[in-house]
Model the fold of this input.
Amino acid sequence: MGRHPELLIPASSLEVLKTAVIFGADAVYIGGEAFGLRAKAKNFSMEDMKQGIAFAHEHDVKVYVTANILAHNQDLAGVRAYFQELKEIKPDALIIADPGVFDIAAEVCPEIEKHISTQANNTNYGTYNFWYRQGASRVVTARELSLVEIREIRANIPKDLEIETFVHGAMCISYSGRCLLSNYFTGRDANRGACTHPCRWKYSVVEETRPGEYMPVYENERGTYIFNSKDLCMIEHIPELLESGIDSLKVEGRMKTALYVATVARTYRKAIDDYQQDPELYRKNMPWYLEQISNCTYRQFTTGFFFGKPDETTQIYNNNTYVKEYTYLGIVGGEKDSMYQIEQRNKFSVGERIEIMKPDGTNVETEVRRIVNEDGESQESAPHPKQVLYIELGEKAQWGDILRRKA
Done:
């Protein structure tokens, strides 16, 4: 059956890290406030990182910290100081793309494992063996590799060198994320963590001798989404992933909500566990996985490069619309006088039917019976984002459950 895989889930904040842990992650990857490739994500302060690592370790879950910028000279002193701080809070690994940054990590915190980021364009077993000799314990495949190529890498590298591969989430239109569009249009550098995702914008074509004459590339008066990739989803191909020798199945999404993280983590957790228990059980439960995975915001699905080079069907040419099945309302916190504390994320009202989404795979429909603010005043609806509220529900909920409403 192949190697026992790790399910690696992204987290944008301490709250989302806790959700990832509760909903089935084996490991979580996070970014600090510097030197990670998601500068626009909320990211973690050192104190949050410390708390997150402690919470994860209490649940036997690992935490990896991204430091995967392609560094310039002026970054190096800051990288050194940052790694000295990380040395104290003991993450399980650092995710690194730049050889200079790698050297600093090896010097400052040799006891922390080093993983090589997909940003380093790892496309062959020679590259894997090179990084192994430098002291890396894991290398993340470039997204442009097929399962055939990954199997060939596995056959030509040491058994103890781990392979990590993205299996779900947004796809970059540029080779291993080496994109200049964001820098060109907005001055925000994708290779230094500040991508504005211009690949999702609308484009038209201009013919050189007809300046100002814009021609849609597709028959759509609003323009075209010529660069807009579908999202990667490999939930139907867990057997092929496990049999290819991949050690860590990675989900993209360090800018996503707790609802997204809970949905994806729970679905892949069950699919992996079902397949390892009994391949027939995995096949039988496929309708459930497919229904659940489409419950969070996504852009239509593709299998990316895994079964060969993508063709024109992997792009979305006529819109940038996310498919949105559910609205995220909040996470259940403490309980007081039979009411559940939540921090509101989207508007809901007394009398509405909502769902309690639980880590074990069940979704419990219930009614919102009462909403009370922190001053004890009843309110008919919850219109203010981030407001702390106490709500009475028709069904039992537990700490960490996600509340959502069908869109």
